[in-house]
Design a protein that fits this description.
Length: 265
């Protein structure tokens, strides 16, 4: 990529610089709710990536951020299309023979993020089969990138999806695998591990509530509260305090708060 003049100043920026700065601007505008301007910038970034042959992880990031903005404006099909395009280009890159290990990790990380985002999109539309398929792929890619904390967060999300569709036994299986991995992370990723354990115990409790095992559910909610208090997660602390004080009142919707694993950006 050759450097070109920045129309907003005298500093010459390479297309790579333009792409990264524009992604950052688009994300900031999306966070502020300025969707029209964000979409204009992010669609332009997509075109630059196509024209300049941006590395798949970079183009994938641009498509990921664009999909977020589209989803917030109700453009579900275009958002899904962006994620699928990003996944396909990075899967193709991963298949290249002789790819250096650092690039394998970079591409795998991006695939974990893109598949996770697609899984969340499909979950929100109750497309359970496709959601679970994408989330499990995401966990596998994060494992391949040696990003175990993101792998655990994604397994929690797999379980939450199963929980939403009332597959309590299968959800518990995913949660037990996730908590074993989380425990192994405690030394190197202490803060993330606490958040992941809090969410995991909360989901386990909801599963046992669904199975009618209220005593075990209360015990797990208490464990979740201990972890949430250590992490300082005010929202989860409030939810758990209310839950523990409600006794046998009917279960309310569980809120997924995947500490440390909302996306690989």
């Amino acid at each position: 990529m050759q450097a070109k003049a920045n129309p907003l100043g005298n500093v010459k920026l390479s297309p790579a610089d333009v792409v990264m700065k524009s992604i950052e601007s688009g994300k900031m505008l999306t966070d502020r709710g300025e969707y029209e301007q964000a979409l204009r910038i992010l669609r332009s970034v997509d075109e630059i990536c196509k024209r300049e042959g941006a590395p798949p992880p970079v183009h994938g990031l641009a498509l990921r951020v664009l999909s977020d903005a589209l989803l917030l404006t109700g453009e579900l099909e275009e958002a899904r299309g962006c994620l699928i395009t990003g996944i396909k280009m990075n899967e193709l890159a991963l298949q290249q023979p002789g790819l250096p290990q650092f690039l394998v990790q970079d591409v795998s990380s991006r695939l974990g993020d893109l598949c996770g985002a697609l899984g969340e999109l499909e979950r929100q539309t109750k497309n359970w089969k496709e959601s679970l398929r994408a989330l499990r792929k995401s966990a596998g890619f994060f494992e391949g990138a040696d990003l175990k904390q993101f792998q655990v967060a994604t397994l929690n999300r797999v379980a939450f999806t199963l929980l939403e569709k009332k597959d309590y036994t299968d959800a518990l299986g995913e949660l037990r695998e996730a908590i074993t991995l989380a425990d192994a992370l405690a030394e190197d990723h202490a803060a993330a591990c606490i958040c992941l354990r809090a969410t995991n115990f909360r989901h386990q409790a909801a599963c046992h509530e669904g199975l009618g095992e209220t005593d075990l559910a209360k015990e797990l909610n208490a464990k979740a509260l201990t972890e949430a208090t250590q992490s300082g997660d005010a929202g989860l602390i409030a939810e758990l305090n209310e839950k523990l004080n409600l006794g046998d009142e009917p279960e309310t919707e569980v809120i997924a708060t995947e500490g440390g694993g909302d996306g690989y950006l």
